[in-house]
Write the structure tokens for this entry.
Amino acid sequence: MNILILGGTAEARDLAERLVAQGHAVTTSLAGRTQSPLLPPGEVRIGGFGGVAGLAATLRAGAVDWLVDATHPYAGQISLNAVAASRETGVPLLRILRPAWTPPDGANWTHVETTSEAAACLPPGARVLLTTGHAGLEQFLAREDCQFIVRLIETPALAIPPHARLLQSRPPYGLADEIALMDGERITHLVTKNSGGGQTAAKLDAAMRLGVKVIMIARPVYGPAIEVDSVDAAVARLSAAG
Ligand code: NAP
């Protein structure tokens, strides 16, 4: 089959590898945000489609049989575009959505809907480990009454002010290192998205052990699709269709 994968995640790379090995014609689409992305096997295209109309045109031009949304759970716009383009063209949409993290017994999590709500609920004097990525960074940094460690993979476009420090690193992160970081920096609050998966989950365990409060930003709403929670399930669903 002719399969277009919306990628940018480890799941998308894994899926492309398995579908190419099965003999499918696979194209992975990347947004182009990462400077040196790990490239999957098969064809790769980079950059936005130009909204729903552009994605729909790509599906038609490529005679795509399946569109797979394997983007990050917080890449909300492209996921909505995928729903709309699938509806417009009739190309079926399969979404891989990794399960959300859930609070362990005794954990201290505050659930919020948006980055601005998360920024607003920090108490004055909070020492914050911020792991929410580039989007909405300015809303946190406007809180000059708090101190921030901003952990990012890529350098931000924004200048980092004196009450914040940039920690550039790449997952996976282990429990011992997360405990050492939070303890060493006397972190009082961890702000995070509910990305799910194992690569960055240790911070939640570390926070619970150290009594660090977790502010958890909810996932976006994506719209209807055939949804699976793993690459295995996606391969099985596509095999059943083929
Ligand atoms: P987004 O807000 O949902 O998308 C914004 C725009 O970027 C889309 O409208 C689309 O432009 C373009 N785009 C996004 N993903 C694309 C893809 N895979 N291929 C082609 N165009 C894409 O997405 P985002 O949060 O900026 O994330 C961008 C990429 O980074 C995604 O592929 C995602 O899997 C990956 N990523 C995101 C996060 C996160 O926390 N958001 C974390 C890890 C990886 P057009 O409308 O012009 O088509």
About this structure: The two ends are 7 Å apart (CA to CA). Residues 109 and 212 are 9 Å apart (CA to CA). Residues 6-9, 29-31, 33, 48-51, 54-55, 71-72, 74-78, 81, 133 surround NAP (CB under 6 Å).
